[in-house]
Specification:
5 strands; alpha/beta; Rossmann fold
Length: 166
């Protein structure tokens, strides 16, 4: 995730990484209006984002519950000026200990983006995480993975730069 965000920054984006502890949100319950500070922050960041990068580990062939629960909070944007992910490019990255899990997780992320009215970028990344893909400093060791992540950033940024239809 950091690799693709750095590539987006090089292309002129302002980025914010929301991960791990920031995604440990209460179970999404649409009937309860009260939101935690972390949930309100997530919703606010999604609302103002012109492009989004989503990443999930593959658990049992699909996205993690942590990521799914966080994405459920996008429901709070249903009445927003730009509902859900409308009019936004969304890059998707999936990692898993096997190719089937990584590919299935990537497909699930893309399906969710469609359901949220977003535009999944043509390039998505399925990363086989049992390889040594990143070093201890987070540098990508696999050129084809680095290229895929950089292309995702380029595609999101290209979409962001398009004139928006009112």
């Amino acid at each position: 995730m950091r690799h693709v965000l750095v590539a987006a920054q090089r292309a002129g984006a302002r980025t914010k990484l929301i991960s791990g502890p920031s995604l440990q949100l209460p179970l999404y319950q649409p009937e309860i209006a009260e939101r935690s500070d972390a949930a309100r922050d997530l919703i606010a960041e999604l609302a103002k984002a012109d492009g989004i990068i989503l990443g999930s580990p593959g658990y049992h062939g699909s996205i993690s519950g942590l990521v799914k629960n966080a994405l459920d909070y996008a429901e709070d944007l249903r009445w927003d000026k730009r509902p859900y992910f409308s009019g936004r490019a969304v890059g998707c990255i999936a990692t898993a200990g096997g190719w089937p899990g990584a590919v299935n997780t990537l497909g699930a992320l893309r399906d969710i983006v469609h359901a949220l009215r977003g535009w999944p970028t043509p390039m998505g990344a399925a990363i086989y995480s049992t390889e040594n893909v990143f070093d201890d400093d987070g540098s990508c060791l696999v050129p084809r993975v680095a290229q895929s992540l950089e292309l995702i950033a380029d595609e999101v940024m290209s979409f962001v730069r398009l004139p928006q239809i009112a």
